[in-house]
Sequence to fold (595 residues):
Amino acid sequence: MKENSNLELNDGAKIAVLGGGPAGSFFSIFALKLTRQIGKNIDLTIYENKNFSHDGPSSCNMCAGVVSESLVQMLAIEGICLKPPIVQRAIDTYCFQTIGGDVFLNSPSKQRGIATVYRGGGPVNQAASETDKEHVFERKSFDDFLLDCAEKEGAKVENVRIEDIKLNNGRPIIFSKRGQLPDADLVVGACGINSKIIKKFEELGTGYICPSTIKAYQSEIHIGEQNVSDLFGNVVYVFLINQPGVKFAAITPKGSYVTVSMLGKDITRQTVMDFLNHPEVKSKFPDSWKTPDAFCRCVPKINVGAARHPFADRIVMIGDASSARLYKDGIGSAYLTAKAAANTAILYGVGETDFHKYYYPSCRKINRDNIFGKIMFAFTGIINQTPILREALLNASRYEQKHPESGYKCSTILWDTFTGNEPYIDIFLRAFNYKLLLRILVNIFNAIFIRLKKSGDKK
Amino acid sequence: MKDGEGSLGRDYKDGDIIFEENSIGKEMYIILTGKVKVIKEKGDVETILATLEEGDFFGEMSLFDNNPRSASVKALGNVKLLEINQKNFLKKISRDPSLAFRMLEKMSQRIRKTDEKILNCTVEIKDFIEDHQEFV
Fold:
């Protein structure tokens, strides 16, 4: 690594943020706030070619759009309060639906703490009914809202697609279709892993390699505002129904739509149709409801690994382009990496050594945590495949929900794993609580006993 | 959408007491929508110390010093509040100390305002004493 620690941002320094998603906006907000606090000035421009107020995948940063309770609280402390119409529905319950039954887990904080949002303007192909057309559901894109917050802090936003990035004497130079853009003292790669420009960062020869990914499948299904309220309310449904090739599926209520998110190998439109026609899933929809032929859908990449060397002199990669939490809380990771990068750039410097010393630990923390995340999801998979374990876990959680005085040990582990509310390592360590293990063991014996009794009765 | 389904946090109606002076509290609150008043009550006299609005927070003092609430807080109209408990708050601060920057900034502003109020009161008392020297 180069020993170049003199690269500091002087008064009036120029920063180019490539991407106006949450990572880019968070970076801009924190960098501008911090420079003001220390009495400096920076000239920060966000380059974003999407218009988040338009409908459809081309104007959307494509994710399930769930903001974890932890992030909602941290943003509120930062002065970024999420409200309708940005919040499409406030969630206080998760339902875990397995083929062996379900369990409803209420938020341990006893408040509606999780926000569901649209990343873009909203879904296209709105098969809205006449009543819904009369009452168009008000919505504002989460990404658009954050971009507005960044603008209020003093960021300039340019509707430009960045086509290329090159190095000239150690300084990054960015290009749009029209040619070279103004020089920048720091280039922030907040472009996400779904943009083409990320490959250009790899080609710079700084050692950056983008994270490994899998594909998720997001579908927006219109069922009408009343049906969303009556049938889903403030509940996110997580389905662990052992559908072939599907690791995880969830239905998230938003306005007059529900978002169906699926993760797994080679998920296609047919997999989504099979999921929607599964008896456990179909029972959640209105009786007369038929699976629509057309719906707004997208197939974004999501991180399953971490980027290598997400920084160089005057370059830092943040958000998905650097490190993200496994399967959950991508927006939370964007917040963490953006804030760490902004603090480093403004308070320490923009050299490779500065980012290595002050920014990279935040990425490493996420990467290490993901190892425990993998273990937690592997455990969940094993439990879901084993009927006795599944039954024991469901019963233990149901018991805790009915008897809060016994403590929410099992419930909070499930809650935190699937809501992305706590680091995986914390959840992992909590799973080794002897009281919890004893509770599950008792429920395992119960499940075995009931099975033996049933088979005895049959004979 | 049914009332409240799209709103985070908890709802309070006009006049609802969020917490009372001298009560033990382990939560801080952030105002998502609406206003609250911070009051001290002595007998039937209610003195408004501050009116807080959207984006403001209160109840944070008890999280840091573990002492009972220093004043009461009442809803002024319909209010939506986000509640953060002490343990979660301290966990967040320990993971990211810079999260406290905005709180420190706001708390500093409050101390400045209090200083100003004390100074104004002192000047007023001095003027009063000077004006009424003969009676004293």
